Structures are given as structure tokens and as C-alpha cells.
Amino acid sequence: MTEQQHSTEHSWKGSGFETRAIHAGYEPDPMTGAVIPPIYATSTYKQDGVGGLRGGYEYSRSANPTRTALEGAIAALEEGERGFAFASGLAAEDTVIRSICKPGDHAVIPDDAYGGTFRLFDKVEKVWGLDHSPAAVSDVDAVRAAIQPGRTKLVWIETPTNPLLNIGDIEALAAVAHEAGAMLVVDNTFASPYLQQPLTLGADVALHSTTKYCGGHSDVVGGAVVVRDLELAERVTFHQNAMGAVPGPFDSFLTHRGLKTLGVRMDRHCDNAEKVVEFLTGHPRVEQVIYPGLEEHPGHAVAARQMKRFGGMVSFRVTGGEAAALAVCEKAEVFTLGESLGGVESLIEHPGRMTHASVAGTDLEVPADLVRLSVGIETADDLVADLDRALGG
Ligand SMILES: *Cc1c(COP(=O)(O)O)cnc(C)c1O
User: Fold this and answer.
1) For the chain, which terminus, N or C, has the lower number of CB atoms within 10 Å?
2) Of 187, 204, 251, 369, which residue is the catalytic one?
3) pLDDT digits (tens, 9 = 90+) for 273-332
4) Cα–Cα nearest to 313, from 171, 211, 212
């Protein structure tokens, strides 16, 4: 089947973000007028004679209409040509890595990559034959120095990074990757397409764990990839089908439903994060607040240039070391103690013992007094009061 057969009729290019979020990827069903894509719980499709596919659909690993709608929507939000949905963020990553690289190649990865991304490169792709070198995404020269000319085919970054919220200059890093004949993949999970569109800054791939802000309600695991080059799109199409890590129709439906409110949710996440940052800054029991929106943050100028706002993730260091940081996590009540991020509910966690426990003792180790917040969209005063209580204020 070809993309032509799956594309929606109306192009929403040039429309505003929220209009694209609500309309791109789907035209009301011609038969019933349903304004929302039905959950097409079907694995196969009746053919009108051998090879006579209706709308290009033949088998739901290759394509399913509920998934097609989601893929069209995410492509429109990232201002790319083609979108692809996956069963998880990591499934999206594996598919992209193997669409771009082959055994014997080399990749540059963040020295503070998401733990699962590091594990994928270090324990899975390496065995398959792809080598990697870590470099700080905030240091363009370090990334350039980590590139092995002729062998590096992939530069992988996150920005902001997790949990230290370091910022990579997407435009500069795209130039560095392209000079070396490599592609730049940006894991855009923390910013979401509302705050940052890597493809418009020169990246080749924008990637998401849609489990986080895109889905936004902590009720579905998923991943997405958006590309602007049609030749790369062909390779990802092939690998998506050949590797088969696709989401089912119900997961696709939930993620697509989440995407429609991404803009309004992100603005509230940012409003609330700003209020939390203001409260934490100068609190006697807080050693340091880490947020790209703060002028003293080393990546502030780059973030201000490439992001619409500074996001809903906030990290801070608690006076009194690890025990004090753990106590804050345990005393919070509105902030739920848990991993993950990007949902409507606020979450608090201790990266050293939770999300980043697997990197203890390596170069990726995070400070023991660090607490990470995923600031949700509850009433801001309640979030501040909860932190005040948890800090023993
Ligand atoms: C969660 C996350 C992933 C992995 O996504 P899953 O959906 O959990 O597989 C990748 N990158 C970042 C930045 C993440 O936060």
C-alpha cells in the first residue's frame, strides 16, 4: 500500500498548532460522519478481488485506520512529512536506529540519556553490531569530537535531558551531524511538539515516548517517530512493518485523544511549573533549582530560542543530602510518588533510587540529593502547599 492511499484529503499545513492537533490525520467518516476515528478492532481486511485493497489496508501490522489517524496527527504537529506510531517509546527507538544504521556503524548518544535509551544502545544495539560513544548534548564541540568520521551514522540527542534538564542546540547539532554524513535524531519527549519542533530546526527525526506528554493521561504506553525526508520514511515504513512493534487500535485511539488537548495541557504544565519554581527558588531547604526557564540555567539562552516555553519538568536538590531528598518524596501527597512523567497528575521521584538507579556508579550517576517533579495540571496553589509541607515549611 502507498502513503497516498492513507493520507487524509485536507492538508492542515499552515494551520495553527491546536487546529492541527484536533483535525489533522482524520476526515469525518464518509459513511457515518463520525467525527472521531473509530477503534478499528480488526486484524485483516476484505479485498475486492485479489490485491483489491480498500484504502490500502490489508493487514493491521502494516496499517490500521485508527493508527493511520494518529500517525497523520503527530506528523502534522511535528511539521514533518510522515508519522509512525509504535507500541512504546523504546520500540520507536529500536525501529529508527535500525532504519538508519547497520552493523559496523557508530552512534553518538547523550552522556545523560534516558536510562532505557542507554540500555537499548548498550545492551541490545551493541550486540547487534552498533557501537556508541557518549557526549554531553549541551556541548557542541564534545559531540563533534565524539563523531568517528565515516563510521558515525547517527547522532542521538534529548533536549531537555532527564533529569538534569540539560539543553542541546538542535540547529547547531544538526549541522555537526550533517557535516559528518550522519543523521540527527531528537528525542522530543520532554518538550512535546507543542514546545519544540526539531524537524523545523534541521533534525532528521523527531521521536517521542507518547506515554508521556503526547498521551498525557498516564493511561497508555506508546511511541512515535516523525520524519521529513521521504526516502527515510520508506526505510521506517519497511522497518515498522518488518519489526512489527506497532500499537493496537485502542492504544492508538487513546494516544490520539490525548494529542488533541496537548496545547492546552502544556500551557498549564508550564504555568504550574513556573509557580513551583518560584516557590522553590530561595526556599531555605532547597540547595538548587534546575529549570531551563531560569536565567542562571546554562542552557537558558538556547532553550529560549528553540522552545516556546520551558516545560513542566523541574528538578531540585534538597539541603541535607539523600535522606532529606527521600523524605520529601515520601511526604508529598498531591505529588504522587512514582516514575514516568507528562500526565495530568503531578509526580515526584528520587532519580538516584528510582528512574536512574541503573546508572549508579557510572558516568551517568545523578546527585543523591536530587528530586524530580513532573508538574501536573492540578490547582497550582495545592501543588505549592504540598511541596511546602513535604519540605517541612
Ligand atoms: C519514557 C521515555 C522513553 C521510553 O519510552 P517508553 O514509552 O517508556 O518505552 C524514551 N525517552 C524518554 C525521554 C522518556 O522519558
Assistant:
1) C
2) 187
3) 999 999 999 899 999 999 999 999 999 999 999 999 999 999 999 999 999 999 999 999
4) 212
What is the Å distance from ligand 1's center to 52 Cα?
Answer: 39
CATH, range 17-260: 3.40.640.10
Select from 3.40.718.10, 3.40.640.10, 3.90.1150.10, 3.40.50.1980 the CATH code of 264-390: 3.90.1150.10
The strand ranges marked E within the chain are 82-86, 106-110, 131-135, 152-158, 183-187, 205-209, 223-227, 286-290, 313-318, 336-337, 347-349, 370-374
Q: Does the Cβ of 356 fall within 6 Å of ligand 1?
A: no
Ligand 1 pocket, residue 355 CB under 6 Å:
no
Rg (CA), the chain: 21
Supply the pTM of this predicted model: 0.96
User: How far is it, in rounded angstroms, from Cα 6 to Cα 75?
Assistant: 13
Q: Probe ligand 1: pick from 120, 212, 315, 340, max atoms within 8 Å of CB?
A: 212
From the list 114, 194, 213, 291, the catalytic residue is: 114
Distance separating alpha carbons of residues 155 and 167, to the nearest angstrom: 15
**How many residues in the chain?**
393
pLDDT in tens, 372-383: 999 999 999 999
pLDDT interval class at 143 (50, 70, 90): very high
Can you give the pLDDT at residue 9? 54
Give residue limits of the domains in the chain: 17-260, 264-390
Report how far residue 55's alpha carbon sits from residue 45's, in angstroms, rounded to the nearest whole number: 10
Whether residue 82 lies in the annotated active site: no
Does 61 participate in catalysis according to the annotation?
Answer: yes
CB 248 near ligand 1, within 6 Å:
no
Looking at ligand 1, which atom is closest to the CA of residue 211?
Answer: 7
- Mean pLDDT for 121-147 is 98
Active site (annotated) includes residue 369: no
**Cα angle value 335/338/344 (rounded, 5°):** 55
Strand 106-110 to 205-209 pairing:
unpaired
By C-alpha distance, which of 230, 223, 181, 254 is closest to 80? Answer: 230
